[in-house]
Structures are given as C-alpha cells and as structure tokens.
Design a protein that fits this description.
With 852 residues, the protein is an alpha+beta fold. The chain is built from 26 helices and 35 strands. The protein is globular and about 110 Å long. It binds one RNA strand of 84 nucleotides through helix 7, strand 17, strand 18, strand 30 and strand 31.
Length: 852
RNA sequence: GCGAGUGUGGCGGAAUUGGCAGACGCGCUAGAUUUAGGAUCUAGUGUCCAUGACGUGGGAGUUCGAGUCUCCCCACUCGCACCA
C-alpha cells in the first residue's frame, strides 16, 4: 500500500471500477427486499452547488448503507429540465433553451459522477425530452376526460410595457424586474387541475404518513385548511323570503348585527325602499366602475348603502338592517354576508363608518372587549358570551355546536370548506411541456388525439422577453387542423407549470424507457412507493402535495397501485456561509478575500451575517475547487459531519480541513499497522486490554448502525468513528494484539464506507487484502457479549448537585449502591450534620441524596 | 399578516429522551519533533472573586433533579399557491 493518502488518484480509480462492474445497477426480480431511495432531482442550472452536494451525500449514505445491509436498492438520478432560467438565458445571451439546458446537464452529470454517488445512471432522464413529456401530455388528456383538468378565468401579473406575463419572482415591489413598469392584474383563461377533488383524501392520509416529519404534515394540513362552515337562512322582517348566507364563522352568529349584500345580488332591487331608491342607484353605478380584485383588497375603501329593509337573526330574532357593500362579491359564496363587526375587520370598518351596532360574542382570554373601546375586530379564539346556551364554550367548539343547532332548527346546514384551491397549471412560456389541446372555431376545445402525441416543442423560436408567449408567434406550431372536423384550428400555446413534471418523475424512474405508457405497471409495482425521499424543507407543501395528488390521480386512472408516493421523508436544511463585503467592491466571493483584505483594492473586508449560500451574495463555495483540493470523500464527510441533516449547515473551510486531516489519520492508522494485521485468520486476543478495545469497536458498530438507521444522525455516527480511531491510536500494546487490531481497523474501514466510499474501498482491498468489494459487501454486526462492562461509574448528587462519583460492580444491588454513595468522602462531607430525607436511586446511572 | 421551525463555550455541534451540560470536530495555549515552515504527536481549553459558585435566547412554573416538560416574551430562518 501507498504510504500517503492520495484522494484524487484513488477516487478516480474506484469510480472507474464501480462503473465497469455496474455496481449500482438496479434490477427487478431479485430475491432481496427492494429499497427505493430518492433525492429530489436538480434543476440543471449550470453547476452543482453545496446544497446538491449535501442533499446527495445524505442520500448516498442511506443508499450505500441499505445496499450493504442486503437490500436491492434503486437509486436513480435525472433532471428537472424545464423552467424559467433557460428561457431567461435565451433572452439575455441568445442561447437556445434546449442547448443551454443540455450543456448544463452534461456539465452537472460530470460533477455528480466526480462525487462518486451510487446512482444507477442507466435510468437517467431529462423532463424536457419528448420521451418524458409525451406521457405527461397523455396523463393530462386522461385527466381532461375525467374532468380533473378544466379551464377557467384567473388573474396573472401583467407588464403592460413588455406585454408579457410575469412570475411572482419577476415582480419586485409590484414592478416588472426588466423595465420597472408597474405590474397590473390581467384576467386570462387558464388550465387548472382539480386538486380540491382530492382535498379530503390528501388530508386524511396525512394521518398515515408516519414516516414524515410532523412539521411537514402540519403545514400540509393547514394548507388544505378544512373547516366546517354553514349556510344560514335569514328571514326578511316583512315576508317569508330568506337571504342565504355562507359563513365559516357561525360561532359569531349572535354578533351579526346587519347584513351585507353584493351589489349584483338579485334581492337588491326588491329590498330597496322608495326612500332609498336614489341613493342605491347612485351607489350601484359607482361600483360598476370599480375593479373586482381591488374591491376586495384590504386597503380599498369599504363603502355601502342602506336598502331600507331589515331581516331577522335566526338565533336571537334581532333586527338587522340590510346594506349593499362594495366588498361583497356575487360569485363568491352566496353573494350575501352576515356582518359581525366585532369579529371581522371589514365588517368592523363598515360598521364604524355607518355607525352600526356592535355586540361582542367572543371574549379572548385575559382581556375584556368593549365594543366602544375596540380599535379593530377580534378575529382570534376565545370563550363565547352573549350567545345564550352557547355561552362559556370555546369558540372552536361552538362552530360545531351552533352548526348542529341550526341544522336542527332547519334554518341552516353544515358545509365543508377547504382553503386549498385548484392548481393553476397554465404558463405563458416557451420552455415547458406543451398543453395538448387544439382550439377550433366550430368544435371548441378539442383534445389532441393520443395517436398524435407528443405535441413537440418547436425549436425555431425568437426570444425577446416581450410580446407574450414565444410559442404564440410560431405559425408553424399554432396553425393546425381540427382533429374532429378537419377545419383550420390553432394549438394551445400555454405550457405546463414545471411542478407537473416533478409530480410523477419518481414513478418514471422505475421504467424510464417504457414506450407503452407513462409507467410500466408491473415494474412500478415492484419498486414503488419510494421508501425514503430526501430534499429541501422549502418543498414541504407545494411539490410534496402535488406529487401526492398526482399519485392518487394515476392510481384512479388505473396506471399505478399505490396511495402515497413517499413512505419516509427527510427534509434537509440549507447550506449557509458567512458573507463578506468590501466598501467599494460590494459582495465578495471567498476567493476575493485574502487575510481579511479585498484582493482588488486591499481595503478591510467587512464580515456579514451567515446566510443561505447564494450567487447574489457571493457567499458560495464551488464544489469543483473543493474536490480538486481535498477530494470528494472530504467534501462528503464535511457536509455530513458539520450538522445533522435536518438543520442548516454552516460552511467552514477549517472544518473541511479537519475532515481531511481525519481521513489522513485513518490512512496512517492502517498504514502503521499494515504489517501487523496481514493475517486475516488470527482471532481477537482475550486480555483485559484487548477486551477494552473490542468493547469500543462493538459499541461503535452499534452506535453507527442505529444512528444511520433510526435517525440519520450522521454527524454523531462519524464522531463515534473518530472516537474509535482515537482509541486505536491510544491503544498501547498493539503488537501483542494483532487480532484485536485487525478487527478494529476493518471495522473503521467498513463503517466509513457509506460516508467516504473511495478511501474505504482502497484500504479494504490494498491494505486489508480483501478481494470482494465493500460497497456491495456486508455491513458489520455488533457482538452484544463484547459490550458487557464489569464496572460502572455512578454519579452521586446531594440535593441535585454532583458531589461525588463511585465505581461499582455492574450488577450491584440498590441497597449496596445506596451505601456506597453515602460513604463517598465528599458526599459524606455534604450530608454531615443534615437529615437525609430521601435517597433516589436510578440503577446504573445516578444516586441523589435529598437532605435538609 | 398567516402557517411551520430554530436558539447550548471563541465557532460547528453532543447529551441513552427528565439524571455528570459541552461528546466529536474547529480554533486557541504550551510542549515534543523538524534547518525552517508545513505536517504529525502529547497535554490543556465554558465563565468567575475557584475545596466553591454561576452557566443551555429572556422571564416565570412543575420536579428530589429541567438544555429536555408547561406558560409568557424576544430574536432569527423557511413557506404562502407563476422560482425551483
């Protein structure tokens, strides 16, 4: 073996061997139990960043660990290749999105390969290829057939100057990022997926996702936002006609003191009394000119007018004047709102303006609300008052009990409401999956026949960033004939939201080359669901909810057999780094700082806060430099050791050096004992010293195994291996224990494999003389017998403060332990002259003497 | 604003889940080795008025015992439906 550790040499050697031996190829039909491990696939932005290094290092530990435990592992990688940055690059630099994307993929694939991740590269695909998106188009057609996809009006951000739709990200302070022109809302006909149809199931199944972090499930439940609302009938004072009202705050019903109708409400005309006629007509005319979106926004002036009529509160019979209000919309709910000024801000503003009565019906804890003294509505929780038999209930409880009471009195009924809205999937962009429909003047919206799929993105496009969707300007694409009547027709020019591609890619990995459908049911069945999914916490709601929704849709379309896509979920934190800036040159890259000075002007560099690594703040580390300097094993080790996966990781150059130093230390430990441990047949020697080191060896196996398997605590697993290496260095009578030494070093190398596979394989084969491969070999097992300790160190406290320590036989009785504790010199000193009130004994751990 | 998190030495982080706070690593100090530097090895390293006291963002509480449980407050981070 080599005396010195040469990372770059051995890393390239082993990456070559794994590729040649196809070590990570996943195949169906194995006797071994399957394990599908997936990390969120990357957007091909150009180069991998530390977030990728971390995400994929975490995944690789689990994939390699499971493979060593004997599972048949599927660990694929691919590209989330559609999206805005490709189109922006085209606008700014004239490169075609397809070329830009494929060059980025080439580059990033090379970088990922250089990291030595155990992917089955044969399954790689990019979502921008027609081989992938044609199946997405097919899924869309099936959804259309079932009414799960539909069109409706909705608003987009519109830049009047560029004549184009802007993403939220492209709007800064309500202005266009390119031209600074104010952005205006614009109504467009757009495609939607009926995710609300699945709201109940998506909610219910959150209770069964026991392998997901509770915080993510809570966020999803809140996002779906199920609530029980009511439809309530308010009878007019003068007749039996009723005004139907929809509300989710039936708990405030006793506080409803007036009624607000939408200006378009059909009862407006009949309810307006002769005396109010002129005023109402003027108000209606004014509202007609107001924009619908603005009318409901918080800042807009709440205005209204009295109709002259009254209705009755169904629970307490109170007379409620009926108003017309500009913020009530006819197309939401029933077009009528019961107004509770004390507990709704808009009603509060309205009541103050028109001097309408107020009654408090919910009292918050520790505060007494008086209508006259209130400056804003109380919309939080509290106890019911002024609500007759419901007084004293929590308002959340009262939502149910009042709803029940209304149903019983036949003046209302319960309704279920969700905060979740249908998923708008239309994008007025080029670089996305074309939505496969055709518009015909005679036949209307006509789906593209399945046989004509895929609808391929045309390539001859000019990108200006102005004038709407680029696709709309390509006549050869838009002009087509109607599949139904053969008459002239035009194609849909909107493309899908890129979340659509990432909603089913995990299923496609099970059969990436299938030419018969989106998924090969048999193969999908053998691999799905994903056993472990790993990715950023920022995807807690949207991506993960959409993927769950798609799984259920594909199931109901008969394409798959699972209810949920991801059995276990690990959400990893961000990678952060200290920011640096120069007074004249602004943000600086780490390589632009030398000994605290700016390399351009020599000025003192100001250190800023530690923030998420981003190009804009220049607090980024290029993985390529890191690999070149230390090797990928060191890069992997640091990103795993510096923090537990779910927490943010602070990048630190000196920490990286520490990890590099540790690998050198491991190499030397093996090298120094190389001659001693050549014979694999020697059994571990049974002496006190030998037994001691063996106990540490087996304790480490147990700790590393459970840290990886139970909790992904890679940082503590690595710390334990470091302790074992320290113990090997400290082990003085090495030469007398070749068997124990060999076992210890083999254990270190084996346990390190999932974290730093290259150095591990190299030591395993060249120093330890093994013919087999560690990566596809066996994970070590611990020997319980080796863990047993004869003596235990017990802490003795007096009144909860540590006053002494006693070493006792491990199997000591409680009484004997108590005696040993009380007779410890220092303990005796502290209980001298006091009365012992109580002695608490925690076997194997601690004794606490309570004195007074 | 709404929803979800996080907060422990000079720094990153540990703590068998209510039982020795600070494992492991970085940094720092001293010594050994070396022509020197680097590398390596050994020892030390929470604070202070130091046989002890104090100490896990701040404040209160439960307990023999609280980083861990309860309540209130503060600071920061993520998501909020067209970034991915």
């Amino acid at each position: 073996m080599q005396e010195r550790y040469n990372a770059s040499l051995i890393e390239q050697k082993w990456q070559g061997i794994w590729e040649q031996e196809q070590s990570f190829k996943a195949t169906e039909g194995s006797q071994r139990e399957k394990y599908y491990l997936l990390e969120m696939f990357p957007y091909p932005s150009g180069r991998i960043h530390m977030g990728h290094v971390r995400n994929y290092s975490i995944g690789d530990v689990v994939a390699r660990f499971k493979a060593m435990q004997g599972f048949n592992v599927l660990h694929p990688m691919g590209w989330d290749a559609f999206g805005m940055p490709a189109e922006n690059a085209a606008i700014q630099h004239g490169t075609h999105p397809a070329k830009w994307t494929s060059e980025n993929i080439e580059n990033m694939r090379m970088q990922l390969k250089r990291m030595g991740f155990s992917y089955d590269w044969d399954r790689e695909f990019a979502t921008c290829h027609a081989d992938y998106y044609r199946w997405e188009q097919l899924i869309f057609l099936k959804m259309l057939e079932r009414g799960l996809a539909y069109k409706k009006q909705s608003t987009v951000n519109w830049c009047p100057d560029c004549q184009t739709v802007l993403a939220n990200e492209q709007v800064e302070d309500n202005c266009c990022w390119r031209c600074d022109q104010e952005v205006v809302p614009k109504e467009l006909e757009q495609w939607f997926f009926r995710i609300t149809e699945y709201a109940e199931e998506l909610l219910e199944f959150t209770d069964r996702l026991s392998g997901w972090p509770e915080s993510v499930l809570t966020m999803q439940r809140n996002w779906i936002g199920k609530s029980i609302g009511c439809e309530i009938d308010f009878r007019l004072e003068s007749s039996d006609v009723v005004i139907k009202v929809f509300t989710t705050r039936q708990d405030t019903l006793f506080g409803a003191t007036f009624m607000s109708l939408a200006p378009e409400h059909p009862l407006v005309a009949p309810l307006t009394t002769a005396a109010q006629q002129a005023e109402v007509a003027a108000f209606l005319k004014k509202v007609q000119n107001q924009d619908k979106i603005k009318r409901t926004s918080d800042e807009y002036e709440k205005e209204g007018v009295f109709t002259g009529s009254y209705c009755l509160n169904p629970v307490n019979g109170n007379r409620m004047p009926i108003y017309i209000a500009n913020f009530v919309l006819m197309d939401y709910g029933t077009g009528a709102v019961m107004a509770v000024p004390t507990h709704d801000q808009r009603d509060f503003d309205f009541a103050r303006k028109y001097k309408l009565p107020m009654t408090v019906v919910i009292q918050p804890e520790g505060e007494l609300l008086e209508p006259a003294a209130m400056t804003e509505a109380w919309t939080g929780s509290g106890r019911m008052i002024n609500s007759e038999e419901f007084d004293g209930q929590e308002n959340e409880t009262a939502k149910i009990t009042i709803a029940d009471a209304l149903e019983a009195k036949k003046c209302g009924k319960k309704t279920v409401n969700y905060r979740l809205r249908d998923w708008g999937v239309s994008r007025q962009r080029y670089w996305g999956t074309p939505i496969p429909v055709i518009y015909c003047d005679a036949c209307g919206v006509v789906p593209v026949p399945e046989a004509q799929l895929p609808v391929v993105l045309p390539t001859d496009i000019v990108f200006t960033g102005e004038g709407g969707s680029p696709l709309a300007q390509v006549d050869s694409f838009t002009q087509t004939s109607c599949p139904t009547c053969n008459g002239p027709a035009r194609r849909e020019t909107d493309t899908f939201d890129t979340f659509v591609e990432s909603s089913w890619y995990f299923a496609r990995y099970t059969c990436p080359d299938d030419v018969n459908g989106p998924v090969d049911k048999k193969k999908a069945e053998s691999w799905l669901p994903v056993d472990q999914y790993i990715g950023g916490i920022e995807h807690a709601v949207m991506h993960l909810l959409y993927a769950r929704f798609f799984t259920k849709v594909l199931r109901d379309l008969g394409l798959m057999d699972i209810d949920e896509p991801f059995t276990n979920l690990l959400t990893q934190g961000m990678v952060c780094m200290e920011t640096s800036s120069c007074p004249t040159h602004g943000w600086l890259y780490p390589e632009e700082v030398d000994a605290g000075k700016c390399t351009q002007c020599g000025a003192d560099v100001k250190l800023g806060r530690t923030e998420k690594m981003s190009k804009s703040k220049k607090n980024v580390v290029d993985p390529d430099h890191l690999i070149k300097q230390y090797g990928c094993d060191t890069a992997r080790l640091f990103s795993l050791f510096a923090a537990p996966p779910e927490k943010d990781l602070e990048w630190n150059e000196q920490g990286v050096e520490g990890c590099s130093r540790f690998l050198n230390r491991v190499w030397r430990a093996v090298y120094d004992n190389h001659a001693l441990i050549q014979d694999p047949s020697v059994k571990p020697e049974v002496t006190d010293e030998g037994r001691n080191l063996r106990r540490i060896v087996h304790r480490t196996i147990k700790k590393v195994t459970t840290d990886i398997d139970d909790s992904f605590h890679f940082n503590t697993a690595i710390a334990a291996i470091m302790e074992l290496v320290n113990a090997i260095y400290a082990f003085e009578r090495k030469t007398e224990h070749p068997g124990v030494m060999r076992e210890a070093l083999e254990t270190v190398v084996s346990l390190l494999t999932p974290f730093v596979p290259h150095i591990a394989e190299e030591l395993w084969s060249t120093a330890l003389g093994h013919e087999d491969r560690l990566s596809t070999g066996c994970w070590p097992r611990w020997d319980e017998a080796a863990l047993v300790e004869a003596q235990k160190l017990i802490v003795v406290q007096v009144n909860g403060k540590v006053r002494g320590k006693v070493t006792v036989p491990a199997d000591i009785s409680e009484d004997d332990l108590k005696q040993a504790a009380l007779h410890d010199d220092n303990v005796a000193r502290f209980i001298d002259g006091m009365t012992v009130r109580k002695v608490i004994v925690i076997p194997g751990r601690l004794v606490n003497v309570v004195v007074a």
